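Weekly structure sync, notes
Attendees: PL (lead), two postdocs, one rotation student
Agenda item 3: pending single-chain targets
PL asked that the sequence for the first pending target be pasted directly into the notes so everyone works from the same version. It is reproduced below exactly as submitted, 375 residues in total.
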Amino acid sequence: MSPTCSYQHLEGPLGDLIASLDLFDAGLLGFITRLSAVRKQAALCVLAHSRRTTFPPHHTEALRFDHSLIGLAKDIRGLKPAELLTKHLAPFHDGLIGALAKLGQREQPSALYRSLVEIFRDPTKAPLAATVRHLQSLTAERLTIIEVLAAEPAFLAPRWVEKITTVQEAKDVIAATRMLREQVFEHFDEDAFRESVRDTGERTSIAAFFRDWFSFGDRRIQAPIDLGPRFEPLDTLQKLTAAGFRWKLCLSNLETAASVMSLRRFYWFCPRREVIVEAEAHGGTADRSPMWFAGGLFGPSNSSPSPSVRREIESDLARAGLALFHAAPEPSFWDAVTRLAYAKPLRTDNDGDGDADDGDVRDILLTLQNGMMVA
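Predicted structure, written out during the meeting:
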């Protein structure tokens, strides 16, 4: 078995280094594998920071191996974790040993070890180091999440780091916070936001936290169409949430908030008929404004307006230039023609795998047009 087999998932340089050391210090690979978690991670951390030249075992110029690495191998065998890190990575913070212990027995990419050392060396990254110290466990993905959340230090609390399960989720949290600050509120209260992040309970989901904050948005959104005095534009997320709460409609979820703020949807309220009008944008480009259609009419508790009320409101919308968009058109004989577009290709008797010739199809159509059918 190849001496690199246990480290194939590591980045190339670190795996090659360990394999090369194993050639000159027989059994080093097995020794590192059998170490306790802390000693093993300390050894890998020091090896990941080695800048000396080495070659993989199969390299033809193995004689150019840096023999000073033999001393490093000896230190790995004989020194305790703190002594090893002090000798080869000085200066280092005591918290680094605790962080390495959180990695468990599994070997990590060399980039993770380098990032950890930088976090505990650089005073400007003290908030990241504090977060790492308070975590129960650590993985490469979780460390990347911490580095992403550093853009909004309030989220570096261990409780939030444990809520966020992927790097993409961390990026979305940062983006959503930026949208709150720049587009949802006229005056964003930074202190209140930080306090809210700090006081978020363990059972509160990320979606629930941002839903509550978006629901208080007070920045006005320009209505795409003026429907006249009978219709009140719900032109802030705060108004939209209040209408949803009053009439028991799902208007305060994050999907609705995002679609309204990005001008893909808009809502009006008709007080006289107690109806919410939903409009959707279709077909917009960078050079052309979208077309707006009424996507739905909703009464209290998501009820459907009576036919007479629907006709009245649709008439008002049409006069204002907002056409009703029918997502499900009435059945028609033209549906048969539409279905033909997806019919299986015609097959000839002579060619079981081939399609009918265009000339054959034209002959059939001409025969039908003349009202004749040739046997």
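Discussion points:
- The chain has four domains: 1-128, 139-214, 232-324, 344-369.
- The chain has a mean pLDDT of 82.
Action: rotation student to compare against the earlier draft before next sync.
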